[in-house]
């Protein structure tokens, strides 16, 4: 899980495409929450997953709308 978490972080840092970067960010957050689940912190993992994915969705939609706007 640690290796997948690092690879997700590298995917975010190395991709210039917005869509691939968000995919890496989702991968890193899901694997990080899975890591917390394996440590026995299920409630914390669930709360972090909901907060992170909600925040990432808002930022992703805002960024896509700015990129699509010609002015």
UniProtKB/TrEMBL annotation:
Core subunit of the mitochondrial membrane respiratory chain NADH dehydrogenase (Complex I) that is believed to belong to the minimal assembly required for catalysis. Complex I functions in the transfer of electrons from NADH to the respiratory chain. The immediate electron acceptor for the enzyme is believed to be ubiquinone. It catalyses: a ubiquinone + NADH + 5 H(+)(in) = a ubiquinol + NAD(+) + 4 H(+)(out). It is an enzyme of class 7 (translocase). It is found in: Mitochondrion membrane. One of its GO terms (molecular function) is NADH dehydrogenase (ubiquinone) activity. Its EC number is 7.1.1.2. PANTHER family: NADH UBIQUINONE OXIDOREDUCTASE SUBUNIT ND6, NADH-UBIQUINONE OXIDOREDUCTASE CHAIN 6. InterPro entries: ComplexI_Subunit6 (IPR050269), NADH_UbQ/plastoQ_OxRdtase_su6 (IPR001457), Nuo/plastoQ_OxRdtase_6_NuoJ (IPR042106). It holds the Pfam family Oxidored_q3. Belongs to the complex I subunit 6 family. The chain crosses the membrane at residues 18-37, 44-68. It is a multi-pass membrane protein. One of its GO terms (cellular component) is mitochondrial membrane. Its main location: mitochondrion. It comes from Phalacrocorax carbo (Great cormorant). Keywords: Electron transport, Membrane, Mitochondrion, NAD, Respiratory chain, Translocase, Transmembrane, Transmembrane helix, Transport, Ubiquinone. This is NADH-ubiquinone oxidoreductase chain 6.
